[in-house]
Amino acid sequence: MPSKTFRNSVNAFSVDKWLGKLGAAFSQMPCLRSITTSAIEDIWAKEHISGKNELIYVRAGRARLRIAGKNLDIGPDDIMLVPVGMPHRDVRISPGPYEIMQVNYDWPAGQELLRSLDVAQLLCLSLQARLHLQLLVHELEREYLSEHSDALERTSAVLGELLLACARFCRQRTQAAAPNRSLRRRKQLASDVRQFLRENYVLPLGLEQLAEQFDVSTFHLSRLFSREFGMSITDTLATIRMERARELLADGTMSVKQIAAAVGYSNSNYFAKVFRRYYGVAPSEFEQEA
Q: How far apart are CA 65 and CA 163, in angstroms?
């Protein structure tokens, strides 16, 4: 297991990398180009690329946004970010009007940050986070419509704050979901290995062959399998083989030597020794009783 110092170093590196990306992005503030309110158009259902960065705020209706290989269902008060040059398409999925507020902006310094965000996390925010973003959207719209002499600077500042909040919430959600994704991957790998053993028990399988098959280290594979099922890979394989041997012995159509080979043992004497350890009797005795 990695030491606490190592884990802290990795976390610190991750934070430093994130802060560096954030600092680079906000070395230049985003520049607002337009805010428009529009209904969905049929042409949007075809994949298209925007010439500006887009921030979409849904006022009414529901649609499915296809972006970065994901289908995202968005509805009232949802916010979505679409970086410039990102292929996407929008399809209405509910009857009635679908109306959005679309914020178009330039942000050359922020392109790396925008493309690194898992924008799907914006649809999974807490109520408090959603309300915070909604307030910023409404403030942005008010400043955009304002006739104050400093409206342009104030609008840019609010847009920057809104994008910063979106980035921060996306990162928080991604970090919170990472342990669960890692756990699911480990469980899936352990299950896949066990299924492989069930389907290939006749082969001369060992930890090294399995690690190569699943492209992981022997240490990692051995540890995660034992943690998941409470027994080693070696013991699991032996159990699968013994259960199958017992079925074949009960059937009575094969000799002990044939059964040993059929369940992956080249040495029938060793097979008999393992069988006795599991069931307390020799294979021949079990066959007679069966």
A: 19
DSSP assignment of 205-267 equals: --HHHHHHHTTS-HHHHHHHHHHHHSS-HHHHHHHHHHHHHHHHHHHT-S-HHHHHHHTT-S-
Phi/psi of residue 109, each to 5°?
Answer: -70, -20
Pair of tokens at residue 52: 């500006």
Q: How many residues does the chain have?
A: 290
The tens digit of pLDDT for each residue in 118-154 reads: 899 999 888 999 999 999 999 999 999 988 888 888 9
For 105, residues 6+ apart whose C-beta sits below 8 A from its C-beta are: 30, 31, 32, 33, 52, 53, 55, 159
Q: Kindly report the CA angle at 219 between 218 and 224, in degrees rounded to 5? A: 100
**Residue 223 to residues 188, 219, 227, 263, Cα–Cα distance (Å):** 14, 6, 6, 25
What 3-state class would DSSP assign to 275? helix
All domains in the chain, ordered by first residue = 4-180 (2.60.120.10), 201-290 (1.10.10.60)
Q: Which H helix or E strand runs over 283?
A: helix 283-289
pTM: 0.58
Q: Which residues contact 287 (CB under 8 A, 6 or more apart)?
A: 249, 250, 252, 256
Please give the structure tokens belonging to residue 199. Answer: 């389907």
pLDDT tens column, 213-243: 999 999 999 999 998 888 999 999 999 999 9
Query: Rounded CA gap, 231 and 235, in Å?
Result: 6
CB proximity list for 156: less than 8 A, separation 6 or greater: 29, 30, 31, 32
